[in-house]
Amino acid sequence: MDETAHGKSLLGEFLSRRRAQLKPADVGLPDYGDRRWVPGLRREELAQLAGVSVAYYIRLEQGLSLNASPQVLDALATALRLDDAERRHLHTLSGDVRQSRRRLPAERVTAAMRQLVDAFGDSPVVVLGQRSDVLTWNRTGHALFAGHLAPDSPDQAATRPNTARMVFLDAHTRDLYVDWPRKARDVVGKLRQAVGKYPDDPHLASLVGELTMRSPHFATLWAQHRVRAWGLNEYRLRHPMVGELDVCQHSLPVPRGQGIRLVVVTAAPGSADQAALRLLNQTLQPAADMSATARPAAGTPAHIVPAVHP
After folding, report:
1. What is the predicted pLDDT for the residue at 245?
2. Per-residue model confidence (pLDDT) at position 283
3. Between vectors from CA 129 to CA 11 and to CA 117, what angle results, nearest 5°?
4. 215's torsion region: left (phi>0), alpha (psi -120 to 50) or beta?
5. Of 127, 189, 211, 298, which has fewest CB within 10 angstroms of its CB?
6. Which residue in 109, 195, 208 sits closest to 156, CA to CA?
7. Contacts of 274 (CB under 8 A, 6+ apart)
């Protein structure tokens, strides 16, 4: 498949899949029960809801029409009940054909990015590329998310951890998230966004192919064409050293980072969860300093005392 055809198929597949996921009752249309031969809405029903001709909508879904107007795309997004992230994704997929030829540029950590990471002190920080590769992390970020991996693994492109691969294929990461299915949906939705922006990136294609072959759960989620926006996410973690804790993951765009993001982890001030993060950082200090810092503060719940002692 050539680049142009591939770019068009992404738009058509997105429209088709999302149309199939809507029931007539979802949009106020009568449900004919057993007399319906297709899952979800019919093409003519969606076209009617969006105020476009059936013939034109069919051409869009078949990839025969390009560069639909913003007004048509917004009407389709409203008819499909898309959220803001999915609406932007639809516009991206229908962008100029030249956009489908773009490939993700090489991603690297600059000195300015390292200074930014250092500015967050002991807060767990991970720097992620658009393919969800871990480009770097601070020591607390490494300990929180991937203490079973080598600390310097992000330093070389060949050994960089990838958060999508970890969530679906790494047992330690799967156990880390109490609500793993929600984390899995978030990861797939963000990866969908990257593929929509860079449909011809060979590394993204390879990653999606690998996960599709090795994880049936990923394959099922990928086929749903759901999109997730970067931003603020709250998760409950089950950490092997400090127990269960509720955290906020703040995803911040790096200035001049071409899509690279800084993920900073925080917990509610004064909470046991914040105490757990502090305790995790204390366990990373040199052995000479541990005698003064390893003891949990008064009132620290027993469940966040580390299971492994120096």
Report:
1. 95
2. 86
3. 145
4. beta
5. 298
6. 109
7. 266, 267, 268
Q: Is 67 helix (H, G, I), strand (E, B) or coil?
A: coil
Tokens representing residue 195 in the block: 């593929």
| CA pair distance 149, 281, nearest whole angstrom | 17
* Gap between the Cα atoms of 133 and 84, Å rounded: 25
* Beta carbons of 278 and 305 less than 8 angstroms apart: no
Q: Which residues contact 52 (CB under 8 A, 6 or more apart)?
A: 72, 75, 76
Distance between CA atoms of 236 and 12, rounded to whole angstroms? Answer: 37
Q: What is the pLDDT of residues 25-53, one digit of tens each?
A: 666 666 655 565 666 788 888 777 777 88
Which residues have C-beta within 8 Å of that of residue 132, sequence separation ≥ 6? 162, 163, 164, 165, 187, 190, 191, 194, 207
Cα–Cα nearest to 215, from 173, 257, 152: 173
Contact present, 104 and 201 (Cβ < 8 Å): yes
Whole-prediction pTM: 0.72
Side chain identity at residue 104, one-letter code: L
Nearest Cα neighbor of 260 from 270, 252, 272, 248 is 252
Is the per-residue pLDDT at 201 higher than 70? yes
* Side-chain half-sphere CA neighbours of 41 within 13 A: 27
Q: Which of 309, 303, 286 is nearest to 295 (CA)?
A: 309
Backbone angles phi, psi at 78, to 5 degrees: -65, -45
- Answer for the pair 255, 283: CB distance below 8 angstroms, yes or no: no
- What is the amino acid identity at position 198? Y
Contacts of 140-144 with C-beta under 8 Å, sequence gap 24+, read 140/277, 140/280, 140/281, 140/284, 141/263, 141/265, 143/241, 143/280, 143/281, 143/283, 143/284, 144/237, 144/239, 144/265, 144/277, 144/280
d(CA 40, CA 43): 9
Residues constituting the chain: 310
